[in-house]
Prior knowledge:
Layout: H1 3-9, H2 15-33, H3 39-72, E1 85-87, E2 90-103, E3 120-134, E4 137-146, E5 149-160, E6 166-173, E7 201-211, E8 214-224, E9 241-242, E10 244-249, E11 255-277, E12 284-298, E13 303-316, E14 319-331, E15 342-347, E16 350-355, E17 357-367, E18 369-370, E19 379-391, E20 399-410, E21 413-422, E22 454-464
Antiparallel strand pairs: 1-2, 2-3, 2-22, 3-4, 4-5, 5-6, 6-7, 7-8, 8-11, 9-15, 10-11, 11-12, 12-13, 13-14, 14-17, 15-16, 17-19, 18-19, 19-20, 20-21, 21-22
Amino acid sequence: MTATEYKATYPNRPLCTLLSATALCLPVSLQALGAQPTVAELEAEVASLTQQLAEANARLADARDQAEAAEKALADTRDVEGTGITLGPLAIGGAIRANYIYGDYEEVGKAPQRGGNGGNIELDTVRINVTLDYKQWIGQLEYRWYDGYNFLHTGWLGYAFDDSTEIQVGVTRVPFGPGPYGVSQSWFFDQHYYVGLIDDPDLGVKYLTRWGNWDLAFAYFASSEPNGNGDSADSARYGYDAVKWKFTIEPNGDVVEAPANGYEESNQFNLRAIYQLESAAFPTHLGVSMEWGELDGKRVEDGHHWALSGHTVSTLGGFTLATQLTRYQYDIGNDGLAGADLIPLGAYDFAWPVATKGWIPAISLSYRLDTPDIPWLSYLQPYIEYSSIVKDDDPYNNSELFILGSAWASGGWYIYSDLAYSNGNLFVGDTDDNYSNIYHGVGDFGVDGNDKWNYRFNLNLGYYY
């Protein structure tokens, strides 16, 4: 019916009624006229959607695997399968390790595992570990014996809540840097370790929690870990701390024996925040660490210390790239070593002056290769690492450390093979034990007067039981 015919037939009805009726009927008419999907077409659509869902699940699983790899890349322990024994909620194990060392320098006097003698093998450590896991109570104990000295490495008791939160009380690792060993995968660690900023156990309380994509750590440490048994005044310990020692430096540079003087750490606060970017292509952990604490002077003025660090850990397949940049400072009075420029830090029953102010850049690249087809090898992990202590004071030379190596794991065996090249690391190079070359020696975290490069090949054989 046309509009003219409609108005002639229904003179009292508006034209919109016809238009409305036509519009309402149009969808029904089109639906009636349109062709219905066939069974084959519907099956093809379902198959396509199923494939898309499978691809999305695969991408999700890959993203989760990459995120887990980033989280474990710098995990708390190296991946070994110690046998140990279990007594109720306690797991008891340990390790025995030995070093083969070869360096392009002579070993002079008493020095901590620096090698020489054309290559030699020596005991590294014997240790015992006890782990507690009883309902929500957790804990760790580790004691170590070295040649001539021994000490408590870790000893804490904690409680694990149901929401990815735990608290630890005792001698526990300071939360600073991207992981317990900083950016490093090597036996030597990086230069952060030697100024007391990674893998450093202290006595206090630590609170760990996860909030969304954030991993947060808050800690208070009343003091450094207790001194163990050794020949030094205060350095029979695992982590580098400000310590007391038996020497002082005269204005003319001579080092003379003196009553124990130096520092004790106290009232230290730590905060670390790490954010997980869960990118399927390149998962990354971005973090910041902060530390501030007091220094109680013994026969010297009191002081304080602080450090601020930014760090990242990224993974791509089996590759892990870790970076860290840190500003650190020990603020001490002018009656310290060389004025306020040097402070004695100690570990492994040996103390040495360290520059009080500087920057530490560090970077490492590693690749984990699982070897399921090799019966005697679980995996290997080659790595390359670089770090430096960039010192504020002139004419102090920077202390650099370059490492090329690999870790090898098989059952309870974990082996490091490292070639270290350094112009300022106490474990790479020559020095003597009477501190007479503090201003000119190699292996120096302080002045590093002659700025000499040395290399050291180190093979560490460890069996974990």
